Amino acid sequence: MTTIEHILLILLLASLYFNWKLIQRIQSALRAKKKALRDSKRLMMRAEEAQSQTIVDKRRFIEALGEPFILIGPSGHISMANSHALALFREKLEGRHINTLSVNNELLPFIREAFVNHGSTTKEFTLSGESSPQHLNSSITAWQLDSAIVDSPILEKRIIIRNVTQNYQTNQMRRDFVANASHELRTPLTIIMGYIENLMEDGFLKEQPELSVKFLGTMFQNSQRLMHLIEDMLMISKLESGQKALLKEEWFPLKEIIEDTFARLDSIRERKQATLQCSIPQDWYIYGDSFYWAQILFNLTENALKQNSGPNLKISIEAELSPEYCHLYVNDNGVGIPTEAIPYLFNRFYRVEKNLSSEIKGTGLGLSIVKHAIEAHDCHISATSTPHEKTTFHISIPLSRFKEKN
Ligand code: ATP
Ligand code: MG
């Protein structure tokens, strides 16, 4: 082999060696790139997983709020809503623009107003039964809308709509009570004032002594009515305060209380030529405040006597035991109560219109007191009526409050 051939061979081997090295370097660079790609993919997947976990957590959180919740993006599109919001709006929410929602027309203006308002807002409003979530079964519902801006990661508006119906109803009841109470107090007071004016006229007392005495009698009756009203209202307020500690509870014989009640009502029973019966064993005892139980049985028996006339009027108090309760029934065979009036019977100041007559006096507070007193004793009361056949007030007393003395 010549020298030139040697040199050529060395050059060839050298070039082969460099090429092989180059290929190796390219291969390792490729491997590194692939690894970097794999790593970045893994990182992306992890980020996606973390993001979807955050969304799952967010969803779980807004669901747990237990109140309708929606999140509105800056463009007005709803990015998140919980199932309570779906029940209120009654249409698909996520991904929709608030201006394209259409089902709950009573609610939508409040949502749009909260969205365009800068900053936080709180607003209270009511919805009719039709626009309220079906499961609430209410004729009117009250809501408090509370909106605020959140900025994670973009500026969004969160809206929570709290159901404040119970509060609204309590306030409404209070307003009604004040209005009704004022009206009821005003009537006897106006009568008393009218008579006082007459009596104060010059010489009236001297010139018309007989009429003056009659006026005084009417004034006395109306003062009694005022006193009765105030006592009833005080009793309701005491019972409504829910202070069970006010009750003086002890074991007392049920029949004794009923016999006392019948004795107190004997003059009106005689006038109505009615029959009062009680078929309760002598040794049945109830645990409770006998003052309130006397009030309960008096109101129920007085109603049965007052609303009806004789001579075939029969009022009976019966009882029976079941595995969980001692059941007490106050029955009469009088005019009865129309079915449509039954749901309102225990409301304050409620009186059945059909039965209203100037002769039957009452304020409509008696049954309200009865119900409160019954509930303060963990008992339950309901009414059923077939006019002219049988009207029954049914009281269920838990057996923990009953004993048969032996
Ligand atoms: P108050 O008891 O305050 O003097 P009231 O008797 O009118 O007045 P409630 O005892 O609350 O009021 O009774 C409400 C209404 O229910 C009565 O006005 C009457 O119309 C009706 N009612 C109650 N019990 C009977 C009954 N046994 N039969 C027919 N109607 C009844
Ligand atoms: Mg009554």
- Please outline the major beta sheet: 5 strands, antiparallel
Bound molecules: adenosine-5'-triphosphate, magnesium ion
Number of helices: 10
Across the major sheet, the strand order is: 2-1-5-4-3
Q: Would you report the number of β strands?
A: 13
Distance between the termini: 136 Å
**Rg, nearest Å:** 40 Å
Task: Please state the oligomeric state of the protein chains shown.
Answer: single chain
Uncertain segments of ≥5 residues (pLDDT<50)? none
Mean pLDDT: 90
Estimate percent helicity: 40-55%
Helix vs. strand class: alpha+beta
Order of helices and strands: HEEHHEEEHHHEHHEEHEEHEEE
Overall spatial form: elongated
Overall description:
The protein has 406 residues and is α+β, with helices and mostly antiparallel strands. The chain is built from 10 helices and 13 strands. The protein has helices spanning 3-64, 83-89, 108-116, 165-200, 204-207, 209-240, 254-264, 266-272, 290-306, 366-376, and strands at residues 69-72, 78-81, 121-128, 140-151, 155-163, 250-253, 275-278, 284-288, 314-321, 325-332, 380-386, 390-398, 402-404. The termini are far apart. The site of adenosine-5'-triphosphate (ATP) has 23 residues, from helix 9 and helix 10.
